[in-house]
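dumping this here so i dont lose it again. seq + smiles for zinc ion
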Amino acid sequence: MDLIKKLEEFRTQEQSLNWHGTFADYFDIVKDKPRVAELAHARIFNMILAGGVATGKGGLTTYDFFSSEIFGLEKALQQVVEYFNSAAQRLEVRKRILLLMGPVGGGKSTIVSILKRGLEAYTRTAAGAVYAITGCPMHEEPLHLIPHELRDDFMREYGIYIEGDLCPHCRFELEHTYAGHIERVPVNRVLFSEKKRLGIGTFSPSDPKSQDVSELTGSIDLSTIGEYGSESDPRAYRFDGELNVANRGMAEFIEMLKVDERFLYVLLTLSQEQNIKTGRFSMIYADEVVVSHTNETEYQAFVGNKKSEALQDRIILVKVPYNLRVSDEVRIYEKLLKQSALQTVHIAPHTLNVASVFAVLTRLEASKKANISLMKKLKLYDGEEIEGYKSKDVKDLQDESDREGMDGISPRYVINRLSSALVKEGATCINPIDALRALRDGLEQHTSVSREQREHYLNLIGEARKEYDEIARREVQKAFVYSFEESARTLLNNYLDNVESYCNNQKMHDAFTGEELEPDEGLMRSIEEQIGVSDTSRKAFREEILIRISTLARRGQQFDYMSHERLREAIEKKLFADLRDVVKITTSAKTPDPEQLRRINDVIDRLIKEHGYCAVCANSLLQYVGSLLNR
Ligand SMILES: Nc1ncnc2c1ncn2[C@@H]1O[C@H](COP(=O)(O)OP(=O)(O)OP(=O)(O)O)[C@@H](O)[C@H]1O
Ligand SMILES: [Mg+2]
Ligand SMILES: [Zn+2]
Ligand SMILES: [Zn+2]
């Protein structure tokens, strides 16, 4: 990489985002592109739409803006987007606080953080450009300079809605520095940045007693008060609270319901009236989205509190439950692993899947109406087809409970357990059994899990393990069968030889000894029985095969393993049946003979080359399946 060149390009690009002018210049931009003057909710809504909209699984709308980082939360995200949609049209919901409520580690903070990162990026694009009065501590909308008396005309002529008044700082500047000449006031483009505290604010509660509201609304600058003589001089005030900072963008309020009521009322005034009460000043206009999160216990306490009724009315609640789809859970883990230090470690096939099965099982509720196992429910939710169930049944199951997904094991817990297992053992590879063990061991230390719940979880680990046993067995069998393609052909030829002599009433010749032999009825039947050919119909079946052979021969074609669908099925089934023992013996032989060793190596090779295993997990898989078959 040419670092210097890259840096130069970066600088040029940064410079291109610079724009300085006067209000008069800005006015031209607005006339041309009214979008630049949109309010915060509309800006965020347009940002989300700009990412693209699609229809996903089960007909749910999905937003690309979220979909590369958030999985399985379509319903919650749809509600979030609906909120922005209505608020963008300045409907009543705009005056409410968006509150995400859900279990720990369920993605609440991530959703907010995607919105914040999104805004940072969006304001750097042409479509999302934002302009502000230069030097305004709240980077306010320059259109505030237009006197109220002229705004109706402005609206009529350009269709642009102006809301809000100048902040004390800008009002002072307009009078004292520009002598009321609005058109001369400087304006510049601003790029939102959480780090630079521009357009994005974050408030996290600390000790409720010592925490001061000025963290939200700014405070008097004691060092300059002497200079300006009065507390009501805007120059003696620092408009640097999180709500000031977040003007035109978004304020995140972490764990909103943990804070003292004083803070909540500031928030409410803001969302209700677009005003911040700051110091000695009258209300200061602010336009921003307030997003917050909380957990269910706190929310229930809040709802149960009579005193908070007024507040409850002014909140839009969106439930963010855990994801309930195994395939999406796997994607969450893949994402988290990519961000972690575990990249050098090999994750054996099916490991994340098995961990996901367990995690999702802990989140599912037993159906009261339908007699269906959790495992079946899990598969239905994941889009698998299960005999006897239709998509309507899935919907019914989903609708049955309004809080499914609000309990259970979090993705964070799963990843932490996987990581600690790896670190502790210094392993280079982790397989499904390791994963389940790590999850199980963790339950012992998990203090927030009750005894009853632990019992239940341990059972679910057993369920996940059973699922895996099936998968493991199939995987090994498949790997063995492939090395047996040759055997399939041999078996077929052997069968055909026998069938031929049976139908022609001839004896068979042993190629080595020259001995004359009766056709091997046992062998033929053992194959035919696999597909239910009865004793009385065996003759017809065999003759049919011979006819097929000669038909093909007349066309110059050879009969092979694939030429006859049913026969092929019979051969495969027979091989699987025989295989059971071969696999059993081969995988559990303490000192394999050379032939067994060749097979084992074959199978391991295949697992590595074709199925994503490494030598370590391929060997453990064989051992594991060996022990399963010997049970
Ligand atoms: N549905 C999901 N899709 C993608 N990632 C998820 C999902 N759920 C959780 N995660 C990931 O799990 C981790 C924990 O999520 P996050 O911190 O957002 O949860 P939270 O709801 O804010 O939890 P807390 O209540 O503990 O603050 C994050 O790294 C997040 O990316
Ligand atoms: Mg969080
Ligand atoms: Zn201002
Ligand atoms: Zn491995």
